[in-house]
């Protein structure tokens, strides 16, 4: 069943849907995972219901993560509310998949949840959120991105600087200068590039 689910997913044969649906609640979590991933590859939006049901009832993190990934694969923005709800999941891996999925199935409803994810407890979630709000040019994220410049993670600070650069956020100049003054990693380079992009001027650290 495990191998069958993988194969059906890869070939995307709709004739396999009944077989896959019959195994979506298999006792083996690895089979459930491969089954729900295969369903997401069928490009059949009406499968969103069974997949979302699994997401709501599943106890195993990696299976819920697979369900979120599959919802995004369905190429239908009606899954956005389910992806947004997944941002409240207790497992970071699920929240990561949810953010990535929202980037692919974007609607305006995802803006505020994406901004809120900049304050997630998981470093990788915050990192993805900073990328997302920058790539989607969400101007109202500027305040939260400025706060992200003092994140405990260097890589979140890098992505926050990159996002502020894309947004041309003049109000972030002082915080970007502080990054250059107080840090010594890739975030310094990101802040320097952001300052140049925003102001057109070269900034250097003077000892």
Would you kindly provide a written description of the structure presented here, covering whatever features stand out?
The protein is an all-alpha fold and 207 residues long. It contains 13 helices and no strands. The chain has helices spanning 2-11, 17-22, 29-40, 48-57, 61-73, 80-86, 92-104, 111-116, 123-135, 142-148, 154-167, 173-182, 186-199. The longest helix has 14 residues, at 154-167. The model has no long low-confidence stretch (mean pLDDT 92).
Give the secondary structure arrangement, pairings included.
Elements: H1 2-11, H2 17-22, H3 29-40, H4 48-57, H5 61-73, H6 80-86, H7 92-104, H8 111-116, H9 123-135, H10 142-148, H11 154-167, H12 173-182, H13 186-199
Helix pairs in contact: 1-3, 3-5, 4-5, 5-7, 6-7, 7-9, 9-11, 10-11, 11-13, 12-13
């Amino acid at each position: 069943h495990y191998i069958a689910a993988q194969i059906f997913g890869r070939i995307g044969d709709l004739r396999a849907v009944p077989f896959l649906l019959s195994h979506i609640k298999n006792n083996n979590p690895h089979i459930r995972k491969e089954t729900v991933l295969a369903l997401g590859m069928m490009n059949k939006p009406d499968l969103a219901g069974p997949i979302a049901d699994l997401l709501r009832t599943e106890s195993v993190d990696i299976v819920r993560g697979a369900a979120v990934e599959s919802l995004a694969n369905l190429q239908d923005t009606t899954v956005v509310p389910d992806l947004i709800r997944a941002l409240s999941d207790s497992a970071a891996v699920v929240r990561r998949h949810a953010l990535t999925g929202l980037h692919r199935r974007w609607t305006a409803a995802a803006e505020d949840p994406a901004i809120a994810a900049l304050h997630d407890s998981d470093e990788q979630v915050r990192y993805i959120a900073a990328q997302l709000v920058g790539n989607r040019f969400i101007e109202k994220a500027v305040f939260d991105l400025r706060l992200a410049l003092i994140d405990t993670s260097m890589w979140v600070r890098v992505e926050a600087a990159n996002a502020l650069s894309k947004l041309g956020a003049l109000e972030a100049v002082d915080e970007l200068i502080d990054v250059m003054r107080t840090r010594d990693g890739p975030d310094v380079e990101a802040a320097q590039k952001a300052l140049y992009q925003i102001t057109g001027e070269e900034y250097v650290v003077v000892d």
